[in-house]
Amino acid sequence: MSDSLLLLSLVALPFLGALAASLLATHARNAAAYLAGGVALAGLALVWTAYPTISQGGVLRAEFAWVPQLGLNFVLRMDGLAWLFAGMVTGIGALVVVYARYYMSTEDPVPRFFAFLLAFMGAMCGLVLSGNLIQLAFFWEMTSLFSFLLIGYWHHTQAARDGARIALTVTATGGLCLFAGLLLIGHIVGSHDLDVVLASGDAIRNHPLYLPALVLVLLGALTKSAQFPFHFWLPHAMAAPTPVSAYLHSATLVKVGLFLMVRLWPVMAGTDAWFWIVGTAGLITLLVGAYVAIFQHDLKGLLAYSTISHLGLITLLLGLNSHLALVAAIFHILNHATFKASLFMAAGIIDHESGTRDIRRLSGLNRTMPFTGRLALVAAAAMAGVPLLNGFISKEMFFEEALSADGLLVLPLVAMLASAFSVTYSLRFIHGTFFGPDPQDLPRQPHEPPAWMRFPVEILVLGCIFVGVLPAATVGPFLDLAARSVLGEATPYYSLAVWHGVNLPLVMSMIALGGGVVLYMALQKHLRSGIEGPPLIRRLEGRRIFERALVFLSWRLARRLEGVLGTRRLQQQLRMVLLLALAAGGFAAWHRGVGPGNLVPQGVDPVIALVWVVGAACALGAAWQAKFHRFAAIMLLGGAGLVVCITFVWFSAPDLALTQLLVEVVTTVLLVLGLRWLPKRMDKPGATGVEVVTISRRLRDLAIAIAAGLGMAALAFAVMTRTPPDLLAQHFLARAYTEGGGTNVVNVILVDFRAFDTLGEIFVLGAVALTVFALLRRFRPAPESVEVPEQQRDQSARDAERPDRRDGDTVADWLLVPSVLTRLLFPVICILAVHLLLRGHDQPGGGFAAGLVASIAIILQYMIGGAAWTEEKLRVLPLRWMGTGLLLAGGVGLASLFFGMPFLTTYFAYADLPWIGRVPTASALLFDIGVFALVVGATVLMLIALAHQSVRGHRAERRAETAPRALVPGED
Amino acid sequence: MATRADWLLALPLLLPLLACAATAALQSHRDLQRGITAITAVGLLLASAALVAEVISQGVIASQMGDWPAPFGITLVADLFAASMVAITALMYAATALYARGDADVLDNEALWHPLLAALALGVGGAFLAGDLFNLYVWFEVMLIASFGLIVLGGGREQLDGAVKYAMLNLLATTVFLISVGMMFGLTGTLNLADMARRIPEIENQGAVAAVAFLMLAAFGAKAAVFPLFFWLPASYHTAIAPVAAIFAALLTKVGVYALIRIVTLLLPEGHAWVAPLMWFLAAGTMVVGVLGAAAHWEIRRILSFHIISQIGYMIVGIAIATPLALAGAVLYMLHHIVVKANLFLVAGVIRRAGGTFSLATLGGLWRRDPWLGLLFAIPALSLAGIPPLSGFWAKLFVLKSGFDAGWYVLAGIALATGILTLYSMLKIWMEAFWKEVPEGTPELPPITGATRWLLLAPVAGLGLVTITIGLWTEPFAAFALAAGEQLASREAYITAVMGVIRP
């Protein structure tokens, strides 16, 4: 089997297995277990297949292109260390699967459990085999993610949810720090490839960014391995099903941080910073974890803190910057995995068979579960460091290293103390559970578990014993491989043996064993009292600080920030946009400097100046009246529009003037029509007296408005007082007739040069109409505006008084002359529209203006005749008009593509039409007709939407009133 | 002669234009409208795929509207960045159109939904392809109006309130943009972006240029919901109906970012040195404000809305650094973000359908009831937080790596911290809506079944698949983004493609 295939399948198999498991039926417990077990065993077999190469000191390596542009390849790389870890992940994984098969309840969706477990296994394999830093971070986050799902598997309990959340938040945060750190290392080295990185230790250690990189990487490693002060997530993660705890907290998840520190040991370690950070974290964790573990009442809680403590031990070893300590660390990683996995499983068995994990309730189980009791006893003894078990040997090595670390007396003392603590809590675990009187009122009658549930524990405990008795013959070669892959030539001589003669470490071991037993006996009374939490440091709970920080960040700070920045009031937001635009423009101009223009200002014509004074007054008046007198404001707005129109005429732009005029007319009419349905303002100006706040706010707004206006004027002045280079306009003038076929340059620009813009703009108009329609379709007038206006009421009253008159007669009489006139004018206006449309290409006019004229004709009919009458006589289907217009305009553009020209290319010719004469028929005319149709359709659609409010308004009013009016004949 | 480029650049705009016209005219024929939208969706996808393929093989392509040579007419131009944005717009159009078939809110408003959706697609597509400043303004207008129409589709008081704020602030921003277009025209005498880029260095009045460019930045910044001009977004997005919110979240702000990138790369290349610190500040503010805003909320769509803002910050980081790698990061981030964000809003719609509410306090039990929905939420949510093996991880990697390479460590650190808080927000939704049991007093709704379930979940699953594909098969996307970044940073190809075809 080739290396690539082997490595790839080692990573891919678990993921594929996870996928398959997730597709199984919810209660297919056995199938899922077989699948998971098969995958794990296959993984183990693959690892074993690699042994011949690894044992020769070789490295398996497979490289696949991943993101080669970033110099990033997917590299799988298996050396001794990775091999050891992969073996641990798959081997203990297989055991956990067997165990979980019997542990998990049939009520849980077990296939999902195995799917998560396998995916986690895959992520672990990917992590330990990573030959690339980015890839390492990649799988690192994945382990966080899947451990989250595993820890929260029993998500219906609050504890599981909290545990999962805390675990993910802490480890993923650490993961992101690690990510940053690894990126920094990559930045320092210039490559993310692990082999390159491992070869550039000096470059890394001597780089100015070494310290930040180190801190970030360690943040990742220490959070993952639950080191002080990030240890608090691990006990909470005990809410997970026990197989998960057995897997995550013995062999895999928490060991990942240690794995990383070992992996990067050759390039990151050896400095004072490393020593102080890693050593201190390890030392504190070792001691505090062991201390707290003694006072746990929950079996799993005890194991959790003991795990923390042992992880601290390993971290401390790694922090010592000594080669021998590194070997001891790797050895203890292995040993801890075996005894802790078996202890977790034993705790799970106890929980499973007796219904509780509380040491205070458990007692004397040795009588009902003798076999389990013995297994647990051996495993706990290994944890306590009893001779002839594996824990003893690595602990001896630890003591030796603690002694040889120069000049620090505190190390051996703490080591001994923590070791004594570990004896105490191991004793508590065994003595509290299996010995003593028979248990009282347990939830279940305890009995031995199924044989297969015990099987994994047996295997692991056998491992503890074998390694403990014959270390060099059993684990020796593997440990050597792992150590050599990290240290290479620098691997020191070490001896794995049970008996090294009577030396200081042995004495320390004995003192610790004795001390631990004595401490346990001394604490009996305190422990029986059942007080929660350890004495002295009960209040120092990591979780509380963590939650406080999160609440501060996500609630107080966020709320305050939102209070300061995010207003829900529109006016403030508008003010902000304006001020910022002003500031941005002002800052840029100030920063780069604005000089005066090079054009000489000409004299000001008093007439146009006066017109502009009027216009400005209208605009100011509109702004002033907008709040209290909407109608006046609209009229004043119209005045300002007219001034713009006059200005266009003044500067010889008849086309613009015409269009502006028509737009002003139509918009003003539509606005006034809409005004009818706005509720009346109740508070008249001046009625409530003047408030200082209001005044000052308005003054401030006035100041902002003036500043913005001045800024705009200054910018415009700066822009317009210099000759622009090579104006586009000259080009348009030159080519409008010769190439565009029209003498009306504006129109040629609109329908030819920049027809594409026009297409967009008519589309906007259409969309506006649709939107108005969408808005008003559901709109029901407010109750206060449904009321019929005073004038109409008088007329109706008059009609009602006279028996010979019907409702509406008076108004019809009053409007008789205008209505006749508008009816007469209708065809005239329509012809004018067609005229404007046709001549548009050469003289002022065009589709837009023509469309507006035509819609004015229709608006007039609606205004004078009323909606009902007009629609009876003249059925305009605005959406059809709009659709046709758009299709026509778009179709003309499309046609040119079919004729082999770019979109919207025009074709131009003169055509002789009967009676009319030579007419310029550019295909642009068709386009213009499209514009025309759309403008008519859009305007009428808005008109109808508004007009029908009054129809609905009347209906609403009738509903509001009572029967007598409905009896009036002639009501529709 | 009409080249392939002419067709390829016109089609992504013509199709929605015609679709809008036809569906507006056929207002009362629901089946025809649906058919047209479906055909348009497929057509858009094919056309934009062809456009991307063409740009990959031919480099930047341009088409002169009306056969008027640049800068006299209007140019449509597509480089890799623009083409990919058009393609992703087509994808969003298709996804929301499909989802809408199962969405009760849309089914009540179908007559207007179809034309307005097409209008939005036209506006967005036009903005991406426009090579002309005024034309860009036109498409902004189209977009604004169409989106306003779409927001009020729900028709409630809440929607109106959101719509008014949305429209007012965007109108103001658009007006600022229009003014700056006029000023720019006055300064350079041209509207063509490529031509403008050539001419700007020759203008003596650099102060006025800078002022106008900054006005544009302010306008586009408001469009892109950049700090401190973001408030319109959280005020309005959560009011729209689900598919509308989804397509808004996906596209609207990104058009602003797109325009920012164009302005910075085309019009301000020399000025970048002094714009960068400002951008730094904007990027950091945007990321932090967005993510903290999200943390403070307990309503799914408000949370998601704030996250749009914080993610925009990442894109601004790319613009601020402006190396090819950073721009590639911004491009990749946009592509990823559009897919993921639309997906999240769609899932939010399904969550409400399944749980009856958007409020996390009253939701619960969804993981037990519908694990598939959970999975479909988890994919975009984790991707948003940048967790591997999803698209977000790579997008973040690009941005971070460019930050580290350029020595912007603090900004990269802020980006990382933002990622953590994003994860926290997603976790919050997961915990409350999925893992927590249904709170007392919340009635359990019947599960979504039958065709509706497929219609709602198919687009969600499809977009999730895109996320996973980018995450696992990263190479082509990364290569594409890097090539796009190179094109943006050098700008030569763009100018040549537009201006090189001047005919005498």
The whole-angstrom Rg of chain B is: 22 Å
Strand content of chain B is under 5%
Q: What value does the average pLDDT of chain B take?
A: 87
Secondary structure tally, helices of chain B: 21
N-to-C series of helices and strands of chain B: HHEEHHHHHHHHHHHHHHHHHHH
Enumerate the strands of the largest sheet of chain B in spatial order, edge to edge or round the barrel.
Answer: 1-2
Taken from the alpha-carbon principal axes, the silhouette of chain A is elongated
The largest sheet of chain A, given as strand count, sense and whether it forms a barrel, is:
2 strands, antiparallel
Distance between the termini of chain A: 90 Å
Strand runs of chain A, count: 4
List the helices and strands and how they pair.
The complex is a heterodimer of chains A (972) and B (504).
Chain A: H1 3-22, H2 29-49, H3 51-55, E1 60-67, E2 72-78, H4 80-103, H5 110-128, H6 133-151, H7 158-189, H8 194-198, H9 201-205, H10 210-224, H11 233-236, H12 242-251, H13 253-263, H14 265-268, H15 272-294, H16 299-319, H17 323-354, H18 370-384, H19 390-404, H20 410-434, H21 451-469, H22 471-474, H23 476-487, H24 504-528, H25 542-565, H26 570-592, H27 606-625, H28 630-650, H29 654-675, H30 692-720, H31 728-735, H32 745-753, H33 755-777, H34 783-786, H35 790-801, H36 809-814, H37 816-839, H38 847-865, H39 867-873, H40 878-898, E3 908-913, E4 917-922, H41 923-960, H42 963-966
Helix pairs in contact in A: 1-2, 1-5, 2-4, 2-5, 4-5, 4-12, 4-17, 4-21, 4-23, 5-6, 6-7, 7-10, 10-13, 10-15, 12-17, 13-16, 15-16, 15-20, 16-17, 16-20, 17-18, 17-19, 17-21, 17-23, 18-20, 18-21, 19-20, 19-21, 19-24, 20-24, 26-30, 27-28, 28-29, 29-38, 29-41, 32-33, 33-40, 33-41, 37-38, 38-39, ...
Chain B: H1 4-25, H2 30-58, E1 61-64, E2 75-78, H3 80-100, H4 104-107, H5 110-129, H6 133-151, H7 157-188, H8 193-199, H9 206-223, H10 232-236, H11 242-267, H12 272-295, H13 300-321, H14 324-355, H15 366-369, H16 371-384, H17 391-405, H18 409-435, H19 450-472, H20 474-490, H21 492-499
Antiparallel strand pairs in B: 1-2
Helix pairs in contact in B: 1-2, 1-5, 2-3, 2-5, 3-5, 3-11, 3-14, 3-19, 5-6, 5-11, 6-7, 6-11, 7-9, 8-21, 9-11, 11-13, 11-14, 12-13, 12-18, 13-14, 13-17, 13-18, 14-16, 14-17, 14-19, 14-20, 16-18, 16-19, 17-18, 17-19
